[in-house]
User: Fold these one by one.
Assistant:
Number 1:
Amino acid sequence: MDKSNGCSFSSIFSIAVFSSAIFVVSLILVRLLYVLYRSSRPLSKRASKPVSTLIILGSGGHTAEMLNLLVVLQKDRFNPRFYIAAATDNMSLQKAQLLENSLAAENATRVTDTAQFMKIYRSREVGQSYITSVWTTLVAMILCNGPGTCIPLCAIAFIFKVLGIRWSLIFYVESIARVRRLSLSGLLLYKLRMADQLFVQWPQLQRQYPRATYVGRLM
């Protein structure tokens, strides 16, 4: 066997693999730039049909603020609603269920037709739980306001957009308790540009983070 032919084939194969890798990386970078560009544009198009919404609840004040926000949400537009909370949070999903029960009673419907409730377990299998939850519930929108649970879910949603698996909008509403600085969750979503829109409730906060949207007090 001619060793020169073997070396030549090996070199061609290596070049082909390297070229393919460069091509794939280039496609991902182009897609990433497109996602960042599209996410930075104003959202002017109104949804013509109900938008499935993933709502991430935190404990304590996070849940109280989120539920106050949900009270004034247009329920017919953001439907069905999927609630997610940490397994160690024993109260948030119960409060969300009470809200959905009252809405179902008012509209003479069943809660199972409009809402689902899930927990994310903080264990070794947490990665699988996150992926499964997002894959089965994420359709068009994520609404969150600060719990650490939201970061992995938002990151997965962003990766799905970059890979072209599923496009979703991420809305982050910063807590009213944050007057001068964003929370860690808000800062990560802002700096990494994962949130399509980041709302703040204090004008000085918007001046410090100009890409945020000041909406005044929501609660």
Number 2:
Amino acid sequence: MSGSYVHERWLSVQKDMYKEAPRELQRLSDTRWACRYSACKNLLDRLPAALRVLHEMAEESSGERSVEARGLLTQIDLTFNGTLVVMKKILGDAKCLSDMLQAPSLDLARAVDLINALQDTLQGCRAGSCFDELWHQTIDTAKHCNIAVEAVEKRSKRGSSRLSEYLVMSTVGHRRPKDGDKEKFRTAVFYPVFDNMNAELTRRFSENNCDIMKGIQALNPKGKSFLEEATVLRFGCLYDCDVDDLKHELYQAKKVVQRKAQCGTEMTNILDFTTFIEPYKEVFHQLFCLCRIALALPVSSASCERSFSALKLIKNHLRTTMTDDRLSNLGVLSIERGRARLLNLDDFVERFAHSHGNRRIHLK
């Protein structure tokens, strides 16, 4: 749908079929899972319009484009529709956790709570009646899109009247009645998707990893569990710290932090707390080591990905001749747009007016 001709048809078909504003089919990204949920949601909501555009393209004599449209139409069947419904469900449930893990103000303790909640949700969906709801949605969507619903209700074949008064102990050539596409889809798609998601969550966020995440959050002065003894001790045990020494250090560190807080010293993150206890590192040796580990572990690529995403939006085909300095400055303003919006532009105008007495532009 990205070509100029097809894209115009895509927008016109949506305007003809829906009263809402047209939607775009988003491209997939290997690093940002939020776009995958949006892609599945938009395609599922606009699947009738997409099929209509593909049918129109298939009927045209445009060579390669018609062949691609017919190829896509053959792949959009009941299994494709059901897989789209399942992926929208599972990616929608995981979106909250994905947004939390990629947020600039990441709270690891709350992330652990969301991980446990997501695992409970997936297990409940697998064992409960979630499949029946998804299957009904799949059938309704298929009927609305005129997709063939195969083997949902099939009449059983009648046996020969000559064998009505006999007990048949072997096959007579008739095939056994199938369970239908519903059971096949349950075992081939639904269970594997949910089992793989549960297995990946268990592998990536194991009990030790969750204890590390909680321990890192316990070293954050703004966290509710700041210097909580049980949480920090579990974190220290994973890195072979001396538990007895760490207990005494935690007790003394709390007293020092309380005295400094009364003097007006404020700490907002783990880096501030590490800088605060660095002069006492000979005394708080175990705690200082854990703080350095906490500063190094939660480094993620989310900030870098946001930078590259901003770069694509800034340097488009209309701005290819800009210099590196201007590109770098615009990139900083775009990435730090939260702080940039708080600036008062009138102050910059007044400062520029007082700094430059002659502001006339010389055209020669």
Number 3:
Amino acid sequence: MLSGHLPHPVGKKLNFDGASQGNPGLSGFGVVVRDENGNLVGAICGPVGIATSNVARITALEEGLKWVSSNGISKVRIEGDSQVILSGITKKGFMNWRLNAWILRINYLLQKFTDYHLNYIFREGNQVADFLANQGIAKTLPTVMSTEDAGNRDFQNLLNDDRAHFSRMGIG
């Protein structure tokens, strides 16, 4: 279900993004999950290898859904700034046949949720996931971050700025 605005709050909010240096080039993914108040539940970033930005983005969505599901979250609002990825998932197919390999896996993961919504957002509303995706390029393994991860000031500043705007753009 692709929608613009939810009439009611839905569990947690998952933002995803991918980055590619060269398209195709070295790529990474980023995911941030927040609660209904904008507080960080978890964040993941990691490498994708040599890939296009769309492969990095769909990898981010898949990794985010796996993480959310494995952490017992049953209701999720999924947001990304890629209309290509979101409409491909909704329509159950992409014009780029290489991306179609993800459809079955993502639909399988989506079936694990009691309620989910896919939403397109503007790039400005996806800054934390974008930052994480760019961080993921340099990683050798996926990295999970939490509120205790104060080691990265840029990450913390983006989270705080995002939370300040969350009531306007959030899930509540």
Number 4:
Amino acid sequence: MFIYPSFSIQIPFIFNDTIKSYILFHTPFDPVRYARVIQACCLEQDLDILPGGDEAEVGDRGYNLSGGKGMRIALARAVYSTAEVFVLDDILASVDVLVGKELATKCISQLLKGKTVLSTTHYTKYQPEFDSAIAI
């Protein structure tokens, strides 16, 4: 059996669609799961200020989003998937310290609990949030 991993990279590729469609990516909409993912990926405030909320159109490659917003939307897409393995490429690099802490605790430690998460980061202060860490 092959397990398909879900990826979130530091510079995400975002296609032209609504934020909600991008996150769902052809998976069924579950309002409870969707709300948990939005909260865990620290997107609530962003969606509140965007005209149309999660129905706002995002341009090709996310040109109308900041780096942090684009990364968190890409992370939400990965987390909303039903994958068992997650490969996260320094997802904390484009967010501030407070958002990084929220992502480490709410998203990675809590929402992805029980999943296999391989993450690179230069923020060693978040190591206590993970089961194990390897310094290179």
